[in-house]
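INFO  loader      accepted 1 record
INFO  loader      residues=116
INFO  predictor   begin
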Amino acid sequence: MDDEHFLSGLEACTLPPEHFNHAGHVRLACLYLARYPLDEAIARTCATIRAYAVHLGAADKYHATITVALVRLLHAHGTAPLANARALLARHYSVAALASAGARAAFVPPDLAPLP
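INFO  predictor   done
INFO  writer      dumping tokens
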């Protein structure tokens, strides 16, 4: 599936769920980062993932802090470091910080090291 069909399907909530795994999340963020300034790419990535999760009845799976942090890390480092996203996030966030309900609902700044 080409980028335009992927993006339009995701934004319209018509993309089959099997096309939106971890790699799909990274693909979405990369597409937005290529088209928009960082802050707008973050806002669009968050809004699109949240809307798609709600559409699938999985709103509780959306995690705002992880989404924002990973888009920032993609912007700073490209896709190579995200092969081990959990380890990368652990450099910036404690387990407790990411596990909080507040971090799931809205972006929470890192408690261990600043994001790039």
